[in-house]
Amino acid sequence: MSLQVGHPAPLFEARSDDGRPVSLTGLRGQWVVLYFYPRASTPGCSIEAQRFESALPEFERLGATVVGVSTDTEARQAKFRDSCGLSFPLIPDGEKTLARRYGVISGLGGLLGLAARETFLIDPAGVLAHRWRSVNPHTHTAEVLTELERRLGLV
Asked: What residue ranges define each of the domains in the chain, with the CATH number in brackets?
């Protein structure tokens, strides 16, 4: 099944690295930036996470929540959160449930089972509004903010 912009985003229920529940249903009524990254604590993933963290006040002002997902363990995600000073939820997806549901398994044709660096913008009604593939961790946060502002009629 291929995800299509304009269709409902796949629902999910998961626990963040700190054990708190995170679900798409629970985030209804706000924009959701659901971003997948390959491996916690690697240079590109750290840069991307820190850029999202720095922009959190702007995302919050626009009514958006940021959620990060990788196929790492809960312990690795927690260490990543602490080392990067992150305050948004990180979902450990060791079983690759979310990565499969969103079609982002990568690494040697999926053999490594890593999540590809992709982002999904989900509108307040739970509809997939935009999808970015193979993003640049240095510039991606600005792209997401610009798209969100465009959708809100601010640019």
From this structure: 13-151 (3.40.30.10)
